[in-house]
Amino acid sequence: MTSLSQARRNALLALLLAGALLALVAWLRDDAAAGVNQRNPAEYPELFAVAQACPPRGDALANGRRSEELGLLRADRYAYNPRDGVRAVQRFQQAEACYRAAGSEGDAARVARSSAALSARVNTDYAAARLNLVNALEQDRWSVALSEVHRLLLLTEHLRRHEYVEWLDKIIGKISARASTAP
């Protein structure tokens, strides 16, 4: 009889320990998810807040043509790399400044239209990535969240000192770990 009650006691103890372990894992998981979700800064940086100036060296018209050419090359690559869209807009802005400095208003207006169109596209993609990240975090879709964090980090690469970018840098490790263990 003693061995039967001892076996029941051991089974009950094992069941109790398993329940406590499951509760601890669930608590830690919720705590980690809350740490990722709660710290999203309300404000995010503007991608093109700083106007680009024409380089002081060389001929302004030649600098404008070169900047426009580099902008066009980067704009073509934007579909493959988000940071190229940001760099293209910056080059277009620089080309516009150079054309204005050279007195070529027609070229400046043309490049300004290219800059505005690409800027609108990049800003729309930026807003969509921010929204997708928030939704993915709320729904514990870690692989989607990781993809959006990578996209946002590429888009904001030139803004490293902003609170939002620092938050993205902080959460990428947690999200990556969650994505690797998610079913």
Q: Which spans of ≥5 residues are poorly predicted at pLDDT below 50?
A: none
| Rg | 26 Å
Specify the structural class: mainly alpha
Strand content range: under 5%
| Coarse shape | rod-shaped
Q: Write down the secondary-structure element order.
A: HHHHHH
How many distinct helices? 6
Number of strands: 0
Number of domains: 1
Average pLDDT, rounded to a whole number, is 86
Name the helicity range.
over 70%
Mind summarizing the main beta sheet?
Answer: none
Distance between the termini: 45 Å
Describe this structure in words.
The chain is mostly helical and 183 residues long. It has one domain. Helices cover 78% and strands 0% of the residues. The longest helix is centred in the first third of the chain and has 36 residues. It is rod-shaped and about 100 Å long.
